[in-house]
Specification:
single chain, 213 residues, alpha+beta, 60s Ribosomal Protein L30, Chain: A, two-stranded antiparallel ribbon
Length: 213
Amino acid sequence: MKEYSLTDISLLMEKCGVDDPMQDYIRECVSFHTFPAAGLLIAAFMVDLALEKMGARPGEKLYAVSETPKCAPDALQVIVHATLGNHRLRIVETGRFAITINRYSEGVRAEGIRVFIDGGKVKQYPTLWLWYTNDPAFKGSVSGEKLLEEILCAGRGILAWEKVRVRFSAKKKWASRICPSCGEMAPAEGFENGVCRGCGRMAYYDKAPTEVP
């Protein structure tokens, strides 16, 4: 399978008439993601559309929600600089490929723009439709040339948007506690059966045996 370079993607973008600012977004996203996945390219167009409808610029302090952990969070992190680390990006796994961007709000609601894929518009792109519907007939990869070309040529044409009010909870104060199992500090409210979640149901590793000199 061919690996597409930024030069290859640039040629496809020129072929599809993608404007210069959008090309810059896509190149930055691909560099960050390390390869030009279909979902990443769609998400880049989503973010650009949401920013336009909000009258916002990437330099603003914005907050975002991705309804999928796949690809879309990277476009939000690169273009909007909303990240998990700065607490301005949330991933709410609804199973839908959609994003929402909003500005800061003092209350428990924030006005935002939600962008999603309009399935009815996707049907005119055969390869994209097979990929989008997870059809067994789709035999390519998420970085196949025909799929990427259809996405880049479609651009915003497969998207829809709506105004929404984003719900969120106010920050809660919490107390810390030392776990008797691992000896590390963790939020007290997360303890289960006397130990932190890292030693309980969220344990994801086993300690490697200590090498004896």
